[in-house]
Amino acid sequence: MTAARRPSRLVAWRRLLPCAVLAFPLILGGCATIRGKQSSDSADGSVSDPFETYNRAVFKFNDQFDKFVLKPVAQGYSDVLPLPVRNSVTRFFNNLLAPTVIVNDLLQGKMERSASDTGRFVINSTVGLVGLFDPARRLGLRPHQADFGMTLGVWGTPAGPYIVWPFLGPSDLRDSFGLVADYYTYPVNYLNSGNERWGLRILNAVNTRANLLGTTSVLEQAGGSNLYSFVREAYFQQRLNLIYNGNPPQPNFPGDDFPDDSGASDGATAVPPAPTPAPIPAPRTPRH
Predict the structure, then answer these.
(1) pLDDT of 150-170, one tens digit each?
(2) Which of 139, 156, 256, 281 has an alpha carbon within 20 to 30 A of 172's alpha carbon?
(3) pLDDT digits (tens, 9 = 90+) for 65-97
(4) Integer angstrom CA distances of residue 153 from 150, 160, 250
(5) Residue 29: is its pLDDT beyond 90?
(6) Domain parsing of the chain, residue ranges
(7) Are 227 and 150 in contact (CB under 8 A)?
């Protein structure tokens, strides 16, 4: 009797998990709205990193894994496959992200963009041979980027603390919940074979790293001696740009509330203008 109940409970938990993932960040967003505060993605430019010790350790682990495993494999992959083939692989995996983009377009209220992304997905999945080619771009249907973490940000959920995940890289609390939600809209996760799922995931990771081989030295030079802080700031800035469609609010730095030289602030005593000097009378012409 007890053994028969266990599978039903397991199925119930699996059904409740997506609801919990969706509900918890929305509750956080509601609380943040009530308090009238924002966190890491606020306009004051602040970044919350209470787990910095842990994050730096994971960041170092990811960097070493990339240096000794992922980057060498990506270099060999790049040497074997010509660029046109790698571009087709990139388009294939980008096309697999389309369902996630379409769903989150709808959740963000962007109906026109959702229709455009749906048409793009249908055309590239059929005429473009499951995304290996991109005929939709020639028709003016440009790709967009959207995920559940962005959707939560659009609706006011705060970013929360910065988190670095092993193998996955930089994230925050809001985007971490978004990753779990995006799992259910990614077609690869519905393949029956575990070998196929992991094979496609590894191929995507290697292909993505191969596309970024030329940026490694640029990133290291830009980050300088504190690459961790540079990547952290760049991550939050990129997410802000995506959430605000490329027009994020300007940060409020200390001193911005002081009055400028153009006029007095509210409640301040205005300085009267300097008196205009009286005109000097013209000299009279003597009469003869």
Answers:
(1) 999 999 999 999 999 999 999
(2) 256
(3) 999 999 999 999 999 999 999 999 999 999 999
(4) 5, 11, 17
(5) no
(6) 10-243
(7) no
Residue 66 in contact with residue 209, Cβ under 8 Å? yes
DSSP letter string, the chain:
-HHHHHHHHHHHHHHHHHHHHHHHHHHHHHHHHHHT---TTSTT-----TTHHHHHHHHHHHHHHIIIIIHHHHHHHHHHS-HHHHHHHHHHHHHHTHHHHHHHHHHTT-HHHHHHHHHHHHHHHHTTTTTTS-HHHHTT-------HHHHHHHTT----SEEEETTTEEEEHHHHHHHHHHGGG-GGGG-S-HHHHHHHHHHHHHHHHHHTGGGHHHHHHHHTT-HHHHHHHHHHHHHHHHHTTT-PPPP--TTTTS--TTSPPTTPPPPPPPPPPPPPPPPPPPP-
pLDDT at 254 over 80: no
Q: Specify the pLDDT at position 16.
A: 41
Q: How far apart are CA 131 and CA 91, in angstroms?
A: 6
CA distance 106 to 112: 9
